[in-house]
Structure formats: C-alpha cells, structure tokens
Amino acid sequence: MKTKRIIAAALAGALILCAGCGKEEELEEEAPVGTAVEVTPALAGPMSAQSVLTGKVAAVNEVQVFPMLAGQVLTLPVKEGGKVNKGQVLFTVDTSNVTSSLSALQQSYAATQQATNLAIQSARISIDQAQTAVDNTQALYEAGAAAEQDLTKAKQALEQATAGLNQAQAQQKASLAQIQAQIDQINKQAQNGTVVSPCAGLITSVNVVRGGMASSAQPAVVIAEDSKVEVKVSVAEDVFTNIKAGDEVDLAIASTEQKTAKGKIASVPAAANVQTSLYDVSISLPSGVTPPIGAFATVTFYTNRRDNTIQIPTEAILTGTDGQFVYIVQDDGEGGKSAMRLPVETGLVGESLTEIVSGLEPDDLVVTKGQSYLSDGAAVRVVSDDDTAGEESPAASQDDGGEG
C-alpha cells in the first residue's frame, strides 16, 4: 500500500514538471521578435530655419519727466504701473524757498504804486494850476491888461506841468512793471513745483518718494506714451540678414494670460549697436496683448523659408564615423519588418524638425525611438509610445548603428 502511494506521488510530480515545461515553451513561442521602435513618416512641405532668442518688453515711446524745480516732494499721487492722463498731476515740490521773497515784492509793489500815484496826483494839480494861469492871462491879454510875453510864459508853464505828469506816469509804469516781472517770475517758478504728465500713458518708473528730494539729475517719472509696448530683442548678423520689417514671429511671454502670441517685426536698425555689435529689432504685439514693461519674452524668428522640403524629427538623426544617418522600417519579405540604415544630408534646422536634403523620400517610415539600438537589417517591431512605456530598453548594438 505504501509503495502505491509513492508511485502515485512520483507520477503527480512528473505531471506538474511537464506542465511547467509546456508553459515555458509556450512563453518562448509568444515572445515578440525584433527591437521595439517608434516611427514617423518623412513629411513633405514648407519649412523655415528657426532662431529662438530672448527679448524684453519695452515702451514704444518712453517719455522721461524731469522736475523743473528742485526741492522736497510734498505729494506723490501716482505709482509705478498706474495709468495717467495728459495734464494729470504726477507730484508736487516744496516751493517755499522760491516764494519766500514774494511777500516783500508785493509790499514793494504796493508802496511804489502809492508813491507814484501821489507824484501823478501832484503833477495833475500843477497842470490844473497852469491851465488856470493860462486862462486868466488870456483874458487879461484880450482886455489889454497883460502883455503877450506874459501869455507865452503861462503857456510854457502848462506845457512843463503836462510833461511832468507824463514823466510821473511813465516812471510809475516802469517801476511797477519791474516789480511785477519779479513777481511773475517767482509765480512761474512756483508753478513748476506742480509737475503734470505731458502725455497719457502707463507709468513705468517712479524715481522719487514723498518726503524725498527731486532734482534734474534723473527723471522723476517715466511714462510709456499711450501705454504702447513692444518687444526689443538683439539679434546677430546671421539672423539680421534674413529678416525684414513685417515678418511674422512667434512670441512666448509667461507674464501674459495668452502665454503665446504672434508678433510682427516693426522695425530693423540700419546699423548694429556700437556697444554690443548686435542689431536691436523691435517686435510689435497683437491687439489685446499687454505684458508688463520689463517682462522677458521668447522670440522665434523664421528665416530661409523653403516651400518644398522633406523634414523629420531631429531626434531621429544619428551621427556615425561616416556622417549622419537614419533608420527606416521596411518589410523584410518574410512577413516581418527590418531596419535599413540610410545616410542622409541635412539642411534647415527648426525647433524640433530638420530638413533632409538627400537620402529620404516622402512617407519613408523613419525610426524616432529605439534607433540607437539598431543595426542595418535588424528585425524590428513597430509600437506606439504607450506600448513601450513598460518595456526596458534593449542592449545597445555594438556596430556603427550605436554611434550618436
């Protein structure tokens, strides 16, 4: 009985082992053949070289406001980032040092006016007296009681009195005008203590503080006229020679809600900046895009535009001892697929695509992932990104296909 149990146990074990061997053979038969790769067809169409540079947002027309009168800042109702209208008060400066002599001048004006009025009044009295003397002498002369010489003297005295009035009036006018000119000058200087905006726009900088001093050494306030801004970017000569005003560019400005936008080259300089040897290019922004002044912007210029090109992802291109090459996938004639190594000549280079001048035809299936593990003629299987997410990369090939 014990012997039968031992035989039964041995048979069961053998069956289990056989079952395990069957599963291993089944797994081996189901194992995929070839290196997993991702492919994309070579595309035909227009292409441009791309140059990505960093610029800054600046005012189209920047207006600097300097105080006309130095002094302590009494009021400062504006702040950086605020908008102002033309004629709006920006700040006021203490004018007491200018107006300190105004009271004395006003008193001098009143005293001078009073004194000259008395002189004019006295001159008029003299005229009245001289006129009376002329009238009386004329009557006596006509009655034969006065000589013609007496009448002549009376008339000369009237002329002298009239000249005295004219002189008194002229002296009053000159004296008061001199004092008034000093008063007007002080009042004009005092008006400079109130600084107003010369234009409407956006305040980009405030360089004074309430209680501090304002001077003409630096602009107290800087205004972007009409709140118009643009992107300023400096480009090298190789880019400059391939762009012109009106060309479209791509903008990426993180500080705006839109994040990306289309811009246009507003102007290009006639010569390079003397200090940097670069060309300062202005980019206009589309309507509604108003980034803060000073914000950074990424500008993508498109140059060397070509209508008919073959282009593939740049990542698909490898470099070997004999130059650049790619792998394409083709049918191996036995129901499977294999990799074919093709040397290529490249042209324009974009942000993610590269032009293939020779070596490929449109719609060739170019390997974009897994190409570093291939060799010419190697078996491959085409998968998507999701299919390869959980797979480990195969060991790199030792031939020239692994150069890159």
Question: How does this model look, in words?
Answer:
By secondary structure, this protein is α+β, with helices and mostly antiparallel strands. The chain folds into four domains: 31-44 and 308-402, Beta Barrel (conserved putative lor/sdh protein from methanococcus maripaludis s2 fold); 51-59 and 229-306, Efflux pump adaptor protein, beta barrel domain (Elongation Factor Tu (Ef-tu), domain 3, Beta Barrel), CATH 2.40.30.170; 62-93 and 193-223, OB fold (Dihydrolipoamide Acetyltransferase, E2P), CATH 2.40.50; 98-191. It is 30% helix and 34% strand. The chain contains five helices and 22 strands. The strands form four sheets. It has a six-stranded mixed β-sheet with strand order 16-17-18-22-1-21, with no helix packed on it. It is rod-shaped. The two termini are 72 Å apart. Residues 389-404 have low confidence and may be disordered.
Q: Give the number of domains.
A: 4
Distance between the terminal alpha carbons, to the nearest Å? 72 Å
- Care to count the β-strands? 22
Mean pLDDT: 87
Number of helices: 5
- Class based on secondary structure composition and strand pairing: alpha+beta
Radius of gyration: 49 Å
In the CATH hierarchy, what is the architecture of the largest domain at level 2?
A: Beta Barrel
Please estimate the helix content. Answer: 25-40%
Q: CATH topology of the largest domain, which one?
A: conserved putative lor/sdh protein from methanococcus maripaludis s2 fold
Shape: rod-shaped
Order of helices and strands: HEEEEEEHHHEEEEEHEEEEEEEEEEE
User: Class of the largest domain in CATH?
Assistant: Mainly Beta
For the largest beta-sheet, the strand count, sense and barrel status come to: 6 strands, mixed
